[in-house]
């Protein structure tokens, strides 16, 4: 099924907490949207043990609205690029596509604080 044919589901604070369960040690306690709102939706979901960042590729430029469509498969491409960089550098938090066409999202560990 292509991006156009696959039903799209935009994540919110409730649905992102459900989606992240396989990637999070422990039960989700908090979920917050931390993105700047220009391109992707970015959430941080935390348990008592760790947190996971979820980035969702929207099918449009969020800052401009649905009149500026974008390809949803860009989330997969970005995830694959991060995985390749991680193999070379070894310090990039792991990334994984959590669902292909539907939410178009990927999970990763938060970047360490500097």
Structural features, described:
The N and C termini lie far apart (42 Å). Strand 2 (40-46) and strand 3 (51-57) form a beta hairpin. 20% of the residues lie in helices and 30% in strands. The longest helix is centred in the C-terminal third of the chain and has 16 residues, at 74-89. The chain has helices at residues 13-19, 74-89; strands at residues 30-33, 40-46, 51-57, 60-61, 65-69, 95-99, 105-108. It contains two helices and seven strands. It is an alpha+beta fold. The protein has one domain (13-108): Phosphorylase Kinase, domain 1 (2-Layer Sandwich), CATH 3.30.200. The model has no long low-confidence stretch (mean pLDDT 76). The strands form two sheets. Strands 1-2-3-7-6 form a five-stranded antiparallel beta sheet, sandwiched between helices. A two-stranded antiparallel sheet has the order 4-5. The protein is globular, with a radius of gyration of 14 Å.
């Amino acid at each position: 099924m292509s991006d156009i044919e696959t039903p799209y589901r935009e994540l919110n604070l409730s649905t992102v907490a459900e989606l992240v369960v396989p990637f999070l040690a422990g039960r989700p306690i908090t979920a917050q949207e931390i993105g700047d709102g220009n391109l992707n939706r970015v959430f941080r979901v935390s348990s008592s043990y760790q947190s996971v960042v979820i980035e969702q590729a929207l099918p449009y430029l969020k800052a401009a609205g649905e009149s500026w469509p974008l390809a949803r498969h860009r989330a997969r491409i970005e995830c694959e690029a991060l995985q390749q960089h991680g193999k070379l550098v070894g310090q990039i938090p792991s990334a994984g596509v959590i669902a292909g066409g539907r939410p178009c999202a990927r999970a990763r560990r938060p970047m360490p604080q500097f």
